[in-house]
Amino acid sequence: MKVLSVASEVYPLIKTGGLADVAGALPAALVGAGVEMRTLVPGYPKVMAALGRTKTVMKVDGGQVRHATQDGLSLYVLDIPALFDREGGPYGDASGRDWDDNARRFATFAHVAARIARGEAGWQPDVVHAHDWQAALVPVHLRFGGGPPSVLTIHNIAFQGRFGGQVFGELGLPDSAWSVDGVEYYGDVSFLKGGLVTADVITTVSPTYAREILTPHFGMGMEGVIAPRAHLVRGIVNGIDTDVWNPETDDALARNYTARTLARRRVNRQALNDEFGLTPGGPLFCVISRLTWQKGLDLLADNIDHLVGLGGKLMVLGTGEPGLEDAFRKAARRHPGHVATHIGFDEKLSHRVQAGSDAILLPSRFEPCGLTQLYALRYGCLPVVARTGGLADTVIHANGAARRAAVATGFVHDTDSGPALGDAITDAVALYGTPEWGVMQRNAMRADVSWNASAEEYAALYKTIAL
């Protein structure tokens, strides 16, 4: 089985969020299921700089498609300097402003993907797997122009690739695609909408999110588009790369440990205290996140005094909305030794924070899957999560029954509720230091957060739609 994955970012070459982790880890996980996956990614500067030897396999307007094997990935790299060789991020400049030509950039990306899918690069996939709005025109090209069947995965339905209708002429699509069965969406172009109505199968990254996106609260206006195709929607929870995220071998840590050697974990807590000036004692909660409304971090900002009043500590790692960044900075000044804030992101630091913290807070208002709680489980950092999307699917709440059965792995609270988050923090502090806490840590670390089961589901799905 040969599958072309089309993703706008892929770890470890280029990453802004969980999409990159999924695109980077899934190909290796699928090998054992008998699937050969190649991944098309844009030739951003970071990608081009990381490549070793490449082979040009296809000429395109303004550039070429290069094939390379890098970091265990079989890659097609779309090398069009005019579109992708620029300073800033994959989708916007250094100030965070979207590139004005994103419609043309990712329309070209999708058009080239469709050509590769039809065998023009000398390799013929059986299935195409497109990720998020940046690749969502691939199923549209294949439906209107022919080619193998397609899967579209929604990582976050809030991002829809919506542009003014005047960009349609830049998309390389036939006139017939400007319709309710194509990319037209209330007079605009929506890349995601086009993919949703043309893909052979729609997946999203957790079973709960697959149900949520059919509702007005979570569907972000697309619930009506998806409803007639609800029978084609599947929720397959993400996994993580358990080699990259492994506390037994992670060279970022002050001390490695396992579920059997949890006492060694304390060295990482002490190292984190020393690095960020936190005083010993009490549970250390952490945040590793984009600091945004979606992530519910305004609710946490309102609960910091409550957390500190209970004897807890807080370490915040992330960047995002200026108001939230400022709120956490002020909290650190208000509670020296009890709250520390690192505005920015550092991959190695994120590993150290997971290994040194006792619990991680994820009060998201919606969360399609979430990978951070999976990393936390792996590191024995107990997740405190909102009951939504993949958070609800991957964390077993520490109610009385779950604790008596010795299966609890964290704390789950109602969404969009500051008081509910405060109660969950209270519950976590009450259990901290008891024998039950250690049981929960070991449960968490032994949970299967790998790609194994999910890769088998994807492989079976590919086989059902392959020509």
UniProtKB/TrEMBL annotation:
Residues 2-226 form the Starch synthase catalytic domain. Pathway: Glycan biosynthesis; glycogen biosynthesis. It catalyses: [(1->4)-alpha-D-glucosyl](n) + ADP-alpha-D-glucose = [(1->4)-alpha-D-glucosyl](n+1) + ADP + H(+). GO terms for biological process: glycogen biosynthetic process. GO terms for cellular component: cytosol. Its EC number is 2.4.1.21. Transmembrane segments: none annotated. ADP-alpha-D-glucose binds at K15. It is an enzyme of class 2 (transferase). It comes from the Bacteria. Keywords: Glycogen biosynthesis, Glycosyltransferase, Transferase. The keyword Manganese does not apply. GO terms for molecular function: alpha-1,4-glucan glucosyltransferase (ADP-glucose donor) activity; alpha-1,4-glucan glucosyltransferase (UDP-glucose donor) activity. Residues 274-429 form the Glycosyl transferase family domain. Synthesizes alpha-1,4-glucan chains using ADP-glucose. Belongs to the glycosyltransferase 1 family. Bacterial/plant glycogen synthase subfamily. NCBIfam families: glgA, PRK00654.1-2. PANTHER family: ALPHA AMYLASE DOMAIN-CONTAINING PROTEIN, GRANULE-BOUND STARCH SYNTHASE 1, CHLOROPLASTIC/AMYLOPLASTIC. HAMAP family: Glycogen_synth. This is Glycogen synthase. It comes from Pontivivens nitratireducens. The gene is glgA.
